[in-house]
Structure formats: structure tokens, C-alpha cells
Amino acid sequence: MIIIQQGDLVLTDRILTGDLLIDGDKIVAIDEHISVPEGAEVINAKGCYVFPGFIDPHTHFQMTNALASTADDFDSGTKAAILGGTTSIINFASPEEGSLCKGLEVHKERAAGHCSCDYKFHMELVEMNEDVAREIPQVVEAGVSSFKVYLAYGFRLTDREIYDAIEAIKPTGALVGAHCENGDLIDALVADKRKRGELDVSNHPLTRPAMIESEAIKRFSTIGAALEYPVHIVHVSSKEGIEEVIRERDLGHKVTCETCPQYLVLDESRYNLPDFEGVKYVMSPPLRTIQDQMALKDALVNGLFQTIGSDHCSFTFNDQKLKSRHDFTRIPGGIPGAEERGIVAYDVLVNQCNMSAVDFMKLVSENPAKLYGMYPKKGTLSIGSDGDITIVDKRIEHVLSKESAHTKADYIPYEGISVTGKVRDVILRGHHVVQDGSLLESYLGECIP
Fold first, then answer.
1. CA angle (165, 334, 372) in 5-degree steps
2. Between 20 and 30 A from 279 (CA), which of 22, 125, 311, 324?
3. Which superfamily, per CATH, for 53-371?
């Protein structure tokens, strides 16, 4: 048994300063005062927020693309995640030899026994045909509750294929999300840059402007609306993207969306850093303007977004990104961030923007659990829910640094950023796995059905 005493318990509708008792892997009691059971481990949480374990709905661990393999596998990635307070991640699984079922099985095998937090999978759709349509209900039966399509990259689907995909998914009730950028326009802009010999990293954001994001959001939402099915937009990065989501909702279309911490604290000036440092920040969508940052913060405070994901997709600076510094199109895109996601978002939203801890909790715990079929097992401090707990000490100010980070990448994008609030303790299904910021137990993660 574990009893957490006198913490500020972040419930779904209020904050209760009190005690929480975990017996086995479940929460069994919540009250202002609970008698300490004999033999129970006592955790003093006075002056701390006690959140349901954070859920990261967007990670790319142990991924290989056309350019490189990620620095973080399930082992290192989930250790970093749980040290940052994340007790569940949803990773992307890609098909194998054209098969969704085989792809899911391969990714489950890679993760089994190597995860330090619980895990679940999104299924990527990189082609659409009768075989794929036939396998969609099979992978849903095997635990997949969400699919992702791409409107960018070489494996993007056509509008008709996206329509067919949503039509095939609709009977299952699974969520359909999309990477929304116009791939054809990106290709055209990249070709223009290549003709001019303008291939340094400062050109990366110029080939992926915000209007390309907003156009794709409109198109994807329209396809969903044509089928009267809700859609989800991942990593919204711009004011224009926000405005498009609002327009779609005003039309009565069902659209949910996610953003990421990098778009709240980093901006496009990073691409002009000296000594090729800008290659660290190549990602898609790219970093935007200060004005976009402000719009995203306002939208979060006003309840436009449902989730905050890390989009953790780590590559090393020296060995992977830097070698293509003279051709931005060859730089593997993505950044590490699973460990820093929760506390960066907390500092921005709760400390700087005065968001309530309850509303913050919904973004990082409750909403992703609901969207991805894990609620109320996950995402809430409720009797009968999993004993997944993240304790944040509100008082500790510290500086984020690679020296204290646990990604296998050789940098973090948040280097030197000061935050107030630190993940102190983490409990995973009743196991006290992180204590005073140190990982005590590894590899206890289980696949979430």
C-alpha cells in the first residue's frame, strides 16, 4: 500500500488538499484525511500537486525513416518519459510488408519488456487498399484505438484515400488523426529552393509556411465532415492553424486538436543560430513566430486544444543532423522532448498563463485518456482507477539541461530554459518508480488494452 498525504490532489472538477491511498495497482480511497494502514509506504506531498499520471499521446520511439533511425528506442525513451512524469505513452506503429496486423505485432514485440511506463499504439496508414481496409477492424480488436494519416511526406495519402480510410474506420469508432501539411506544395517550394541553391537550414521553415498547415487542416476536416465523422489534428503550430480549427467548428464539424511544448517556447529564430546549431530544430511543422506562440497559449487557456503531445522523435546532433547541414532536405526531422513535455507545459500554462491546475491536468491526463480509450482506467484520480500518479513540487526552480536529461540524443531543444515546478515522484500502477527525481524501478510498463 502507498498513502500520499496532504498533497493538492488535482481532481476532475476541483483541487482537494488531502490524502490518497493506493492498494495493489488501484486507487482505493481519496479524502481529506485517511488513517495510515499498517505497513503502508507514506509519501508526504505537502506543497505539491498530485496529478493523475501524465499521458503523452504522441511519441516516435524506435522508428526508422528514409533518412535515419531514432536515437531513442523503447528502453531509453520510456525511461525519459516516466522521469518527466509520463506514466503512459502512445507510440506510432507502422505497417510491415503492407500489413497493419504484422506491423502492430512487430511494434508490440519491440516494446515488450523494454518499457518503463505503460504504452499503447496508434496505427499509421501509409497506403489505402482493400487489404488495409480488411485489417482495420482486426487491429482495433487487438487494442488500437486510433489511426494516423499523413497529408505530407512521400507516403501521404490522396484525398480519396483518406476518405476511404475514414469510411473503413468509421464502424470501429476509432479516432482518425492527421499530420496536416500540404505535401505537394512543400515539394514545389523545396524544388524552388533547390534550383536556387538555397539549402541551408534557414530555408526549412520557408518551405513549410503556416498557410500550408491551415490549408491541410481545412481539407482533412472537410473529408471528415463529408463522412460525418470526427477528426483529430496533431501538432498544430500556428495562428492560422488555430483559426482554421475554429472555422471548422463554427461550421459544426467535429474537430479535436493537439499542440506541443516546442511551439510554446521556441521560435523560428533558432534556424539562424551560428555554427549550424539550427539543424537541431528541424521538425515538421517547423518552429513559428512569437505571434504564433502567443496565439497558441491563448488558445490553450481558452480551451481550444484537447491534448499536448511531445512529438518526441529524437536524432543526434553530431552524428545524424549535422552531417546534412548543407542540405536541409536531408536532415532527419524531429526533436527529443518526452521528458520535458509535462514540466515545460506546466510552467508555461500554470505559472505564466495562470491556467488552473485542473485545466492543465485535463490537457496532459484526462483528455488524452478519453480520446484514446483509456478512461477511467487512466487519466483521473478516482477510486478504482490505476494508481498512476505524478507528484510535482511547485516550489523548485531549475534549469533544463542535457546533463540531467535521459534521452540518448546528444542535446535537448529546451537547453537553458528555467522552469518552476519539478516532477518529484511518480507511481506506476502502485509501484513507486521515481523517487526524488531518480528512477528506482525500470521495465514495469505494460501494453494498455
1. 45
2. 125
3. Metal-dependent hydrolases (3.20.20.140)
